[in-house]
Amino acid sequence: MDMANLTWLYGQPQSTGMLKASPEDFVVVEDLGFEPDGEGEHVLVNIRKSGCNTQFVADYLARFAGIHARSVSYAGLKDRHAVTEQWFCLHLPGKETPDFSQFALEGCEVLASARHLRKMRIGTLKGNAFTLVLRQISDRQDVEPRLQAIAAGGVPNYFGSQRFGRGGNNLVMARRWANDEIRVKERSKRSFYLSASRSALFNLIASRRLANQQHRRVLEGDALQLHGRGSWFVAKPDELAELQQRLDAGELLITAPLPGDGEPGTAGEALDFERQCLVEQPELMALLTRERVDPARRALLLLPQKMQWNWWDDATVELRFWLPAGSFATSVVREIMRQDSGDADIGE
To answer: Binding site: which residues?
Structure first.
């Protein structure tokens, strides 16, 4: 998916800059939102890594502990070319806790380990804390007010380019699958292609609402989410004035669909708008319906928490913020400057 075609919330940045001049310029620390139980048949291991992707570390942990690779899980993927602190979960029923002081993998350091009652699954975390260093900024006068605007009003909650694979290949393969040009049997590939399809459709609708200046206006039938909560409800015509006030106060968030096999959950004006967008992508919609993917909702805007920044000089700024699980730091950087982020962090 071409991220350059998506609408900017504050207009296209004038400044250029560099993200991830080195792995140390992109630091991610997982926030589980809970403490390990201290007992149970699982072991949670917190590892600081650089130069290793998540699955590679998981496979190495499995060999170290003498268990099958399927017995090691994690909450989300983290980029290889970054410094990340990530939790892994080893299923060790009836087995002793390994001596992690003997764990030796280049680029990795075990920070902590503890027993836990439940298996860690994808998405089992509260969020991620980011520390980014943006370098070679060409126009500080353009970047500074953007940082202030983002801290106050957030950014579009777009899925980053990482979701679509290198060169957008996941989306290319999804369309080929939809057209019966290929058969996809491998479970992981099916998941990647379906996820890319839903993400592309969400980005399309979110971008269109921004372009229509409807990202902060409650439409009749909108699916609204309480800030910090996953549940949502539908805006009724006689409640629009009250709901608009609650939205303006930051209590509510407008959502856009992650389409699937079923109704998106909206009604009236909002449903009509979403259908008009989705009719443009019949292949992807047919694929999601055929594969019986459950529909869901996602907040239209993303507000970074605890956001602060420090200019080292006129061309270098250190940026810190916290994002809830499933959000992308690259979507924050996209509103700050134009840059080539490559396969930057997967912040899920």
So the answer is: 26, 128, 328
